[in-house]
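Deliverable D5.2: sample structural annotation.
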Amino acid sequence: MLAGLGTLSFAAHQVALTAESLSYMPGYGFAVAAATLVGQSLGARKYVQAHRYGWEAAKIVLLVMCGISLAFLLFPEYVIRLHPPPCGGKSKKKSPSCSHCISAGIDSTPNSCICFYLLGCIVGALLKIFRKWKP
């Protein structure tokens, strides 16, 4: 369906998807770290520390993801330059839709990443609970 719009529009879409997937990586990293910290704290029966780790790191991941989203919103041209032509690099035929695609798709990044992060906290807690349970 998108390929029918032309190669430049398809390339702009691909650049936007790549940039958006790169913006999710810190959220995934924080989710793995949260699963580890919360799980270890619960395993040591330090429930208050597990709660504190979970929410303090949630604040950090939200700040990081909002910063990444602002950078993508304010400077999409620099993100595009990281990609090879036809949309990025030193291409003579640049599409303005590349920056519009990046700006349009990046607004949901903080919300999605905080969900990934909280899911990581829950997974860490559940893994610790179910490892203790022996059938």
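Annotation notes: Residues 8-132 form one domain. Residues 24 and 112 are 8 Å apart (CA to CA).
The annotation will be released with the project's public dataset once the embargo ends.
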